[in-house]
Amino acid sequence: MNFQAICGLFAVAAMCQAQAPVCTQLKSSIDAVTAALDKFQYAEAARIMPAIEGARNECPRVLLAMARLRAAQKNSDQSGKLFERYMQAQPNDAEGPFRFGETLLRASYFSQADAMADRALALNPDHSGALALKGQLLVMRRQTDDGVRMLERAVQLDPANAEAHFQLGAVFDRLKQPENAVKHFESVAHLRPADQRAYDYLGLNLEQLGETDRAESAFQRGLAVNGGPLSDSFLDFNYGRFLLKQNRLNESKSHLDRAVEIAPRVRAVLYERGKLNLRMARYQDAARDAQHALDTPDPSQVILDLQVYALLAEIYSRMGDADQAASYVHLAESAKIPRKPAERK
Amino acid sequence: MTVVVCFPLASTVIRIWLVGLLVLLILAWRPLETGSSPIRFENRVSKTGISFVLNNGASPDKPIVDTTLGGVALFDFDNDGYLDIFFTNGARLPGMSKDGPGFSNRLYRNNHDGTFADVTEHAKLAGGGYSMGVAAGDYDNDGFVDLFVAGVNRNSLFHNNGDGTFSDITERAKLTGIVSGKKPWSVSAAWIDYDRDGKLDLFVTSYVDWSPEKNSLCGDEGKRLSCAPAFYQGLPNLLYRNNGDGTFTDVSESTGISSHIGKGMGVAIADFNGDGFPDIFVANDNERNFLFKNIGGKTFEEMGVPAGVAFTEDGVPVSGMGADFRDLNNDGRPDLVETALDGETFPLFVNLGHESFSESTYQSGVGYASLRKSGWGVGIYDFDNDGNKDIFTANSHVSENAPLYGQHAYKQSNSVFRNLGNGKFRDVSAQAGADFANAAAHRGCAFGDLDNDGRVDAVVSIIAGKPEIFYNTSAGGNHWILLQLRGKSSNRDGIGAAVKLTSESGAIQYNDATTSVGYASSSDKRMHFGTGKDARIREIEISWPSGKVQRLSGIAADQILSVEEP
Fold this sequence. Notes:
Number of helices of chain A: 20
Largest sheet of chain B: 4 strands, antiparallel
Distance between the termini of chain B: 70 Å
Radius of gyration of chain A: 25 Å
Largest interface: A-B, 36 and 31 residues
Shape of chain A: elongated
Strand content of chain B: 35-45%
Largest sheet of chain A: none
Oligomer: heterodimer
Number of strands of chain B: 39
Helix content of chain B: under 10%
Radius of gyration of chain B: 24 Å
Helix content of chain A: over 70%
Structural class of chain B: mainly beta
């Protein structure tokens, strides 16, 4: 189907009739903005955007790029309106509902995102991005097998679909299949080199495989690009933990200190620095961190009270405070141990 | 140069010879360059005549009982100087009766030529019920090693009659394990003279309150999984005091042992605080581990949490399986290694003194190397006789159908971690020989020198398979000594004796005499030391359980030395 024919289908035919020459002229800039958005390079997209946004009435792709950029800039009102305009202009293009769905998912509008994914797939069942979006939503609904099938199909249709690789990596990370997770996160790192989360996941999964040199390299590459709207608050934490296991205490401290600065109200971060301070025989600091961890609620139970009690028992024991140590020993001994997920029927 | 110019033929010969020499040098040098391990094992089961197959009576429901069996004992039942092998076995489910020879426990006599003869029937050791673990010890000090077999619903004590036969004296000895009408599920056992009265007492770990009627089902139909222990209540461990008249008294309550309920799997014994009284470590399955400190041979204080061995450094319990309790860093303080499941590592606790341990799993190099393994049997032995004790683990996932639920491998190869002597270990499993790479449903393992060549061998049980009879074929020419202790006022096996060995170069090593090693298994009571390049030993200091201290000096290595308590 050629350009004129497509335009003929649309209600906003005037836009189509006028857009071809301008859009052709701006094609390289529009491509550059789209590529920057795909790679999460929002500053770059914002830099180019002024040069093309004047053509938004003529070029639907500019509309779409603007919608995505506004979403990245957390301007959801404008973003939503721009997506709607794009979908009116290009009602048969699956890219519109897919991108809108992607944005809605990031904003935690799950059912609306799901509806957009379905709409995109109805328009084009082989749309790699829409398949990845739907796959991600299915995984979130615990329909893991179906979700993985969709994500794998997305990758098969478009091996350069970074998001599909990312979501597959995340699934395999959760399923504790580090070999598979590494494969996909390496693809993400290649396709979307500014995606710090991919490096974080990559480091953690390489660590599971005992590939410590490669894990360290991944953490460092992640830290080198960390920042921006998708900043990974836990890269310093994970790298600090990694260094603690290597007994590289001073290096670990610099990262765990930064992790505490970034996330001062996260129990896991405080707990880990408490462990480090204990190892460094900085008992007062360790006790302060561990007490702070205990006072910090952790509803998701990443770090159990039991773990903090055990840490405090050891810290006070090393400090020679027998009474405090005994009280935390008692708490640790009487703490209930929750079942591991694998132990549930 | 002159030769080359004047005698071209000779030159060619010399060149060929030099090239050949170079190739030889490269070949000789390559193993070092590639970090090849001197620790090697060869599985000679096919040459031994051993036909035993560990039969768990597997049923489609995969009850928890059919994953946890597999105890092995290495002991010299006929006092001929060679280790014999005993295997425990399962039973048909759900009835749990040994209703056919395929479920029989088996005793194999060592023929001294690498072969073994099945003497089970003559020895009357076929047993009954669903057997789990085994502990070998001369409880009556008559010079013949007896056997305790732990199991589901029933435990058994077999008295060694000294004529190649055993008698089941469980009832008379009061060791059935039935407490107030409640039947046991015992997994491991340890002979321990906890009160140092010269008679071996018995500690038995108890797992969970399970029966076919209480069986939970896990996993989908057709691909059931063994349910985790969390589905069942734990049971108190058992401690029996030896009355010296062939009977035992259950002192679990009066000593404080039974007031701590876990889900006991492996047990390991050592005097961790150097007070002269043996202490007890119990590896609990997904519960905190127990460390029972012996208070003067009268009571026990459970101090796993304050001592830092109850949990990992992350403050969480692991699925504890086997354990061994020996000095890994030659500082005179017994350290602990515990096997656990995939994702948990095999925790290694370094004894810091002052009744305190520090977990060193990752720092030691064992962490990442064990992270994707599930371990059962474990032993801390100097396999290359270099003076540093290494770690051997028998590996397999719990559930046969686990691979259907992810990437867990049910059948796994075993691991050997070489002690580098600096607090670090290297996983040298891949270099330990082709046989060592065999992936199987490994369970218990026992350690000892089967051929008396000074190198510690290992026997590993395998569910639905023949065992691995791993002869240690490590080269290197290092020296060694095996101490065969014979107590007089102490128990005759010398169990509980603490030995300090100073070799010629001044290197000092320590070990505690025990047969309770790893998971549900019992190892050679003789105490092994590698002495590296030292062909002589300056001094051996033996602290007997009786309190006597004996010193031997100027001893040649490379011998099995019998030492009688003065």
